Amino acid sequence: MARVLLLLPTKSYRTSDFLAAARSLKLDVTVASEEPSALEKSRPDGLLTLDFRDPAACARRAVEYARRYPVAAVLGVDEQTAVAAAAIAAALDLPANPSSAAVAAWHKPTLRRRLKAAGVPTPNHAVFARGEDAEAISRRLRYPCVLKPTFLSGSRGVIRANTPAEFLAAWSRIARLLEQPDVARIGGKLSREILVEDFAPGREFALEGLLREGALSVLALFDKPDPLDGPFFEETIYVTPSRLGASEQERIREVVADGARALGLVEGPVHAEVRHGESGTWLIELAARSIGGLCARTLRFGTGVSLEELILSNALRLPIPSLERERLAAGVMMIPIPRPGVLREVHGLDRARAVPGLVEATISAHPGQTLVPLPEGSRYLGFLFSRAETPERAEAALREAHAALEFRIEG
After folding, report:
1. By residue range, what is the domain housing residue 373?
2. Residue 303, exposed/middle/buried by CB under 10 A (0-12, 13-18, 19+)?
3. Which of the residues in the chain have pLDDT under 50?
4. Does 39 fall in a domain?
5. Which residues contact 235 (CB under 8 A, 6 or more apart)?
6. Residue 40: what pLDDT?
7. pLDDT at 90 (0 to 100)
8. What pLDDT digit, counting tens, does each position of 212-231 carry?
9. Are 16 and 93 found together in one domain?
10. What residues have CB less than 8 Å from 320, skipping those under 6 apart?
């Protein structure tokens, strides 16, 4: 059987779904994580420890490993592991994105520069050192603007400022976030940077795509029906198919395809965040990975093939019967954390699960867990999934199910 090397951070939501997809395709799997497992010595073929912060070291270690256990494909599931995966694939001579393209998709200033150079619509931006004089910077900016770390995802640390006073408050908040050990460990020297960019007006959409030899196939375009205008940008509901007209959907596809070419992305999944409205279509993010969290469970293709199966099949050049999404509309709600504290109890799950159109309700937070909402946090309370005849009904089911849930949070 073909072996795939999956780069899965220890705290990833994606582990179980990718492993299930590999089993469905009858693949051998090696899971590489950044933290050593006590089982690694007893399962040298299935577990590997890699420091994702050092792609070159990852590549050297993977080459050593592949001498004993040949690898047919390597995949990362987030921005940092996508960079490591590109380095490993290059060392093993496997189809993959160039390392420079994976880095550009992860590092927001590089992404902005490459998009600008290629004429792809993206917000104007500037990068500042965390230790610079924030008050002096605030006096020469155009408002509204958006501040963000240069390497985090999922809207973590993203804050809109409408005035110099709001800018200073946002700057201080992001600086404290970047000093947190877990964030500094991921970002390294990038944790010294803060990106400031123009706020792009319009509604927000997410495009899920798959690249093969530079050609982009659109797997789904998601509406984000809740306004995402700040001051924070916590994502909640995704619904597909989009209710945009065909010409507007095509414009979004063109911008994302142009963005992929500008970055040099040619292989594997891409997840794009786009603002679209009267002022134009703006490419905000273009990640060399698939949709995060458990949101991929929203998507089914052909006769029930999962997104993870498509991604693995594409990487291994296995036959893909269909890239057509199922007929029913589908939606997901990332359940937001309403306030910080310790989760004590969850009520209303039975009522939520009884809502017509709801197909799954998963609470990923556990009692006793300390909850940190955005913009500092990086997790959700859980996920709700719906399927219905129309996008409107899929969205309504998510809202009704969420209203049935009650979370007792103390502190």
Report:
1. 328-411
2. exposed
3. none
4. yes
5. 154, 155, 224, 228, 334
6. 56
7. 97
8. 999 999 999 999 999 999 99
9. yes
10. 310, 313, 314
